[in-house]
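Standup notes
- DV: blocked on the single-chain target, sequence here:
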Amino acid sequence: MSKRRVVVTGLGTINPLGNNVQDTWKNLVNGVSGIDSITSFDTSNLPVTFAGEVKNFDANEYMGKQHARKLDRSGHLSIYATEEALKDAELNSQERLGPNVGIVFGTGIGGIGATEDAVRTFDERGPSRVNPLAITQLMPNSSTGQVAIKFGIEGPSVTITTACAASANAVGEAKNMIENGIVDIVVTGGTESGTTPMTIAAFAQIRALSTQNDNPKEACKPFDKNRDGFVMGEGSTVLILESEESAKSRNAEIYAYIDGYGSTTDAYHITAPAEGGAGAVKAMEKAIEDAGITPSDIDYINAHGTSTPANDKNETEAIKTVLGEKASEVVISSTKSMTGHLLGGGGAFESMASILSIKHSKVPPTINLNDPDEECDLNYTPNDAVDLEINTAMSNSFGFGGHNAVLVFKKS
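- DV (later): unblocked, structure below
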């Protein structure tokens, strides 16, 4: 049986740049930074005091206090983004979606805020005062299960926790489900809300975070000589994937086709990328092969581009290896420069950014790229968006543990 083509028919998001797709896209192409000093807790004793926080969102107001108290913040965000995506796809979010709809979500950590709260309560007030909802708040599959319950998703349900590649892996595995005829529609994407005191402290201890506290909006500078680490971000992005036949049968708007998916593991180091981005190279090659294209067909790459010294150098080398002479011509950008790193939610957000780039024929910039690193010498779209007819876009996601996930989207 030949594989079915898979299309994207709905998008929903809540992130540091906006609480809907339209505001997010506007801010992305205008080079607006969503990174600022942390407002959700006291940072006075922390070495890093800024992040990309979701703004103007009250879970109690959105879903009611009784429902909100059952979930970690990452769950609040995932339900919000899912509802937005279902509306966008013109699927009825008030009726159960049923057994022909699956769900695949990615998250790096799960309910880390709930975990910290439970441990703090245990230490300060004893075991009898631990929240009885703590387990269902903190487990990594909580968002997947809660979204399935909320919208009556009865098909396959999968949670992927491959660190910062998680939601890219989720989108890829959702594609596979539809291609192979398991279901016609999959709700997929990712969520993360890791902007918590312990998480900030832990990442700072391994020197992964930027420490430019005095100028947070300019702290995330992928591919710049003065980059000093990534910036923590939070958010959820959800895509509705559908078989082409299903989408056309209900006259759904098609944003783009998802034709390529490649996934590999470095098997090298738990935090550092393999030299020369060897695992990333293989994942990009697999995605290109899966899409039935050649490297020269790629018009735009949404880079992983974390603003860490090791990632940006190795990703540059990997792109050069895969694209050869085309590497100097392809247009590349890192939207993390504006959102920060959404960890397990990053791949889904950057998939959305790639899809919107195709739809609007425009590439978002890499902001704060003012002094390019000599070892990062490709076209990273510094500071200003560019108009570009995009037929094929590739999105890279790489995570701690050596996980690599690459997706290829096409206009038709």
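- Follow-up: DSSP finds 14 helices and 14 strands in the chain.
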